[in-house]
Every structure is written in C-alpha cells, then in structure tokens.
Amino acid sequence: MARIDCGLSQEALAHAAGVDRAFLGTLERGTRNISIDNVERLAEAIGLPAHELLNPRLAEERGYDPTLTRAPRTARPYAATTRRPKDKANEKRRR
Q1: What confidence tens digit (pLDDT) does each residue in 1-31 have?
Q2: Separation of alpha carbons 66 and 43, rounded Å
Q3: What's the CA gap between 26 and 62, in Å, rounded?
C-alpha cells in the first residue's frame, strides 16, 4: 500500500531499490520472507523509515486504502497471451 500511495509501479520500485520485480511481487503477495537489508532498500526507495514498513498498523496509521493493494487480473491493460511485434533489429541479432 505504501508503494501504491507513492504512485510507484512494482517495476519502478524494484528498480529504485535494486531488487527484482518478481521478487517484489512475491513479497507483496506474502509468499516470501524478506531480509532486513531488503527492507532498508525498499524503505529508502519509498521514502519511509525502515521501521515503519515493519509496523503492522502502517496502513491504518497512514490512511492507506486497503482495496488498492493489487489490481485484479482482469484489469490488465493487455491480454496475458498478447505478444508485442518483433523489432527487426532484435530479430536480426537473434539469428
């Protein structure tokens, strides 16, 4: 919720914090644990003290909207099976 409140995408936050976007996604879903080093990286990128990210009442205290934690899969701007057109320069390099 802190990431969304800052207006950052997972990709932008991951880049700013120096972590992988997929790793950040697993953290947000709660399927992975995080090290204190990565807490510090994310907190710095978001602009919050690291101890605040560990506060279980952070959303309530800051007034974050809990319904904005994750967009439903149906809200994707593109179909999951859609592919982008190949770039001719990249296609030549692959050969």
Answers
A1: 888 888 888 998 999 999 999 999 999 888 9
A2: 19
A3: 23
